[in-house]
Write a structure and sequence with these properties.
Layout lengths: L14 E7 L9 H9 L21 E7 L4 H7 L4 H12 L1 H8 L13 H12 L4 H7 L3 H14 L2 H10 L5 H11 L3 H10 L16 E4 L8 H4 L5 E4 L1 H8 L3 E3 L5 E3 L24 H11 L5
Antiparallel strand pairs: 1-2, 3-4, 5-6
């Protein structure tokens, strides 16, 4: 599906060779593995020629094509948007905005095929300055500007780079790679551990609709070891607004669990973020939270 030119949910990472373990009889894994991949927006075709060098593994190998990236719509849903809103933004990028960009000579290719955040940002700013854009955007309740902003944010997300880093690690097995990738996109065993630890509730607000909760790493992914990336005490279960602010270092928590709000976060109350917020931290959380505060220069670290 990632190869279709009309697919707005184009993969930012094209295809990579992946070692897929087989059982004692040479059979590939059951559909359970495929279901796990699909649950976080990843797809696994049933056959195909492998691209790139084979990855190291200490198990028998079966190489498949793996389209390794969270698709735009899934990314929007992961950020807490409703299905109808995600569909609307995706459609705007693929259709109306792509047509407008082509007619104005801003992009010869559909906008969903732009993979550079800088390139898309330049196109987006010029689109917003076109005659008639403001009026049409206002009539559409800011649908077009919001779609452009969200897609730019999607392209700037560092998930793709982190997934590529996991794939390039020759010291991890295929199973370990899959576990880490699922962890990075907030799925798999890491999310299950957080759901259990936090009793299916947001660690800060207590909100309990689990489909809206995000498995968020405390210590940034890039500075964590593989073991730390799967450690339940290196995670908080958060609502999307809190997850995004926490991930960007706009909020953190002190050793007593009291929220710390960065001066860089404008109008926190508009996001439902208040100084009275607290999280119940176990002693095991504290080293990870200290790294988070230190990384983003919040509190006394």
């Amino acid at each position: 599906m990632a190869g279709r030119s009309d697919d707005v949910y184009r993969s930012k990472i094209t295809f990579a060779a992946v070692d897929r373990p087989v059982d004692a009889y040479g059979r590939p894994p059951t559909s359970a593995s495929h279901s796990l991949l699909c649950s976080c927006g990843l797809t696994l075709p049933s056959s195909g020629r492998a691209y790139g060098p084979p990855l190291k593994s200490n198990v028998r190998r079966h190489t498949y094509l793996l389209d390794l990236h969270m698709k735009f719509e899934d990314w929007l849903l992961h950020r807490g948007l409703k299905q109808s809103t995600a569909d609307s933004y995706a459609s705007a990028i693929r259709q109306a905005l792509s047509r407008a960009a082509k007619e104005a000579g801003l992009s010869a290719k559909p906008l969903d095929q732009v993979s550079s955040a800088d390139e898309f940002g330049a196109i987006s700013e010029k689109l917003k300055q076109l005659p008639g854009f403001s009026n049409r955007n206002a009539r559409g309740h800011l649908r077009y500007s919001n779609a452009l902003d969200r897609f730019a944010e999607y392209l700037s997300d560092d998930v793709a780079a982190d997934v590529e880093e996991v794939l390039a690690d020759g010291d991890t097995t295929a199973t370990e790679k899959l576990t880490l990738i699922l962890s990075r996109v907030g799925q798999g065993i890491f999310r299950q551990r957080l759901l259990q630890h936090w009793s299916g509730r947001c660690a800060v607000t207590g909100y309990d609709q689990t489909s809206l909760l995000v498995a968020s790493h405390i210590q940034p992914w890039r500075t964590s070891t593989n073991q730390e990336r799967l450690n339940l005490f290196n995670g908080l279960l958060l609502l999307p607004n809190l997850d995004r602010a926490f991930d960007k270092g706009l909020i953190s928590f002190d050793s007593a669990g009291t929220i710390l709000i960065s001066a860089r976060l404008s109008k926190p109350s508009s996001l439902g973020i208040t100084k009275s917020m607290r999280v119940k931290l176990e002693p095991e959380h504290l080293p990870f939270m200290k790294v988070h505060r230190s990384t983003f220069h919040l509190g006394d670290a």
